[in-house]
Amino acid sequence: MSEPQTMSVSATAFPAASAGFVEKTPLERYQPPAKPSLVGVSRVQLMQALASIGVPAAQRKMRVQQLWHWLYVRGARRFDAMTSVSKELRATLDHHFTLARPEVVAEQISADGTRKWLLRLPGEHSLERPHEIECVYIPEADRGTLCLSTQVGCTLTCSFCHTGTQRLVRNLTAGEIVGQIMVARDRLDDWLAAAQEGGASAASSGAGTRGKGSQRLISNIVMMGMGEPLYNFEAVRDALLIAADGDGIAISKRRITLSTSGVVPNIPLAGIEIGCMLAVSLHAVRDELRNELVPLNRKYPIKELLDACRNYPGLSNARRITFEYVMLKGVNDSLADAKALVKLLKGIPAKINLIPFNPWPGTTYECSDWETIEKFSEIIFSAGYASPVRTPRGRDILAACGQLKSASEKLSARERLALRAMAMTD
Ligand code: SAH
Ligand code: SF4
Question: How far apart are CA 301 and CA 295, in angstroms?
Answer without folding.
Answer: 10
